Amino acid sequence: MTTVTEVDPERFGHELDRFVARQGLSRRRFLGRGAATVLMAGGLAQVLAACGIDGTAARNLADLERQARRVNHPRTELGDWTFSNWPLYIDKSVIKDFNAKYGGHCKYVEEINDNNEFYGKVRQQLAAGVPIGRDIVTLTDYMASRWVRFGYVTPIDKRNVPNGRRLVRNLRSITYDPRRQFTLPWQSGAIGIGYDIKQTGGEVRSLRELFDPRWKGRVTLFSEPYDSAGSVLLMEGVDASRATLDQMLGAIERIGKANDDGQFRRFTGNDYTTDLTKGNIALALAYSGDLVQLQSDNPNMRFAYPEEGAMQFTDNMMMPAKVEHPYAAETMMNYVYEPAVAAKICAYVNYISPVEGIKEILERTDPEIASNELIFPPDDVRAKLHSYPSFTTREEQQMYEAMAQVTGA
Predict the structure, then answer these.
(1) Which CATH architecture has domain 78-185+315-369?
(2) What's the topology of domain 189-312+402-407?
(3) pLDDT tens readout for residues 130-142
């Protein structure tokens, strides 16, 4: 008889999502109200059976890779289809031009404000194996990894995306999707040091400045552990893209000790910009794209790619499982990788484009953007950008719980 300790945690996390979806619960509410009670009331057998205790369940990634080898999305009329993205993340003329060129109608929806919030909206449909009514979704690495891990994605027919060859070298592979069979980068950004040079009195280059006692109470970090703990690991000389859970927990512990000593004013999301521009803080972990705008409003604002390296987040285009218009989605993926189109998007959003060859276009059309190192990092900086590590659902839960204890969330 197979024991519970032999359950594959990857599979367990997937089936746990399926179980709570059937019960009409959110995962957070389920875990918060006591998982053991619910499971022992009859759910445990469902979850463990689905996890493969009887030896019949296949791993999702292996299934997906087999699908990818035989994927075939024939040319069809595009029709009416849906692209879900974050707010202010495209020049809307790109959508208009796409419709004019290829026909059909792209319903472009700016509905993703938070990865977990969006996941909560569609999780039950994904777990039940039914279409979610979106043909492209754009999610950040750690969430994209979860969708791939759980089999919530449709493989990309690369014959429909020949412009995929234009992908910049450092994004051609990612830990959770080594051959980019299920994801294609939309835009990237770096997590570095935002600072007020009027307060610091000079340039800042090292992540160690965030922990320097002379800035006590005038520093903010992100509440997101992938960003903050990952940056601490880089500060310590660890390749955060390959970090183990224990290494991330150790970094969170270091953050906690510094917080207990009063080093940090608070932990933030994007609202760190308010403290920085108002002069409430001197230093912050910051997103490169934000500082492009902040610098235009306040000449004292600075951004530094840390000398130790920087975490890089990437938002990825994916087709959900049971996608209804795969050819339309792939046609759009190919279109936004055309250099002229990618340059137009980059000029609007001010993030790091995944497409080669657009800097030369912008040097002619918008030289100020082309010369901005926050949008076009130098080669030596780009070589030290690190993607998020990939964790199982259980490991990710442990990491978030540890960070919540530090931040008080």
Answers:
(1) 3-Layer(aba) Sandwich (3.40)
(2) D-Maltodextrin-Binding Protein; domain 2 (3.40.190)
(3) 999 999 999 999 8
